[in-house]
TrEMBL record:
<protein>
    <submittedName>
        <fullName>Cupin domain-containing protein</fullName>
    </submittedName>
</protein>
<dbReference type="InterPro" id="IPR008579">
    <property type="entry name" value="UGlyAH_Cupin_dom"/>
</dbReference>
<dbReference type="InterPro" id="IPR014710">
    <property type="entry name" value="RmlC-like_jellyroll"/>
</dbReference>
<dbReference type="Pfam" id="PF05899">
    <property type="entry name" value="Cupin_3"/>
</dbReference>
<feature type="domain" description="(S)-ureidoglycine aminohydrolase cupin">
    <location>
        <begin position="41"/>
        <end position="112"/>
    </location>
</feature>
<dbReference type="InterPro" id="IPR011051">
    <property type="entry name" value="RmlC_Cupin_sf"/>
</dbReference>
């Protein structure tokens, strides 16, 4: 097995585009684009660039995710109703077990790293 550095350059990853699953959508008709760059050998760690346009939907996390907002802003609200606005330059983690909502204001783009333990 060879190991090499994997660069994350927008426009060079494996792309998957489409709507947010309709059963999760609370507002709007949000479209998302995932540009996937890396999956480890155990298939439990992933990273890439994700973006979406305006909309709001429910979240249920079974994985841990690190996010870095590249551009735009969103509001993340937990199950208790506590909201946090995130915008370009913000870095944060969403832990496994998190439930709540994600609301994209305009459009948003983020780097993501996901670990499924």
């Amino acid at each position: 097995m060879t190991s090499k550095l994997v660069r994350i350059r927008e426009g060079e990853g494996e792309r998957d585009a489409g709507p947010v699953a309709q059963e999760k959508v609370l507002a709007g008709m949000p479209q998302q684009l995932t540009e996937h760059f890396f999956t480890n050998a155990k298939k439990n760690f992933f990273c890439g660039i994700w973006s979406s346009d305006t909309g709001k939907w429910t979240l249920t996390y079974s994985e841990d995710e690190f996010c870095y907002i590249i551009e735009g802003e969103a509001i993340i609200t937990d199950a208790e109703g506590v909201s946090e606005r995130v915008s370009a330059g913000d870095a944060f983690c969403i832990p496994a077990g998190f439930t709540g909502t994600w609301e994209t204001i305009g459009s948003v783009k983020k780097f993501y790293s996901i670990y499924e333990g």
